[in-house]
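User: For my dataset I need records formatted as: sequence, then structure tokens, nothing else. Please produce one.
Assistant:
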Amino acid sequence: MIAQKHSFRRAVSLVEALVAAAVVAVLALGGLAYQYLGATHFHIARAELAATRAGQLLMEDWKGAGAPNLENYDATTLEVGFEKPVAGDNGSYVITVDGIKLHLSLSYEDIDEDEFAHVTLRRLAVEIQWRQDFGSGDVDDDDPSIILTTYARKGRD
């Protein structure tokens, strides 16, 4: 009888194939999660940038309107898209920027008064809020917001 030499080729076992598949699946899920979070944070950053720009525009125009006009300021005169959500509601505006509906609220408070110079220091604030899901409906208290604040002097009227 002739002895035959068997040459064994190294093959991939089932266990090795399953381990390799599991590693590839974990890497793929990690990549998808990273992509999802990156896209989500891109939308959040875009909304924050749009809100800050709209708020800064409104704040600078409001401050530039002059002290006697702070109470009667109307942002719709800018003609860049600011609208009043409710007729007669002074200080609240809505604008859509990059497809994101922003709700802006203006407020002021007299901080200090110099009676000798007849000048009042006034804090001006603009709160910008948008829906967390970037929808077009009304905002809730838990939706994101940015508050911009500056100070202006109010002299004699």
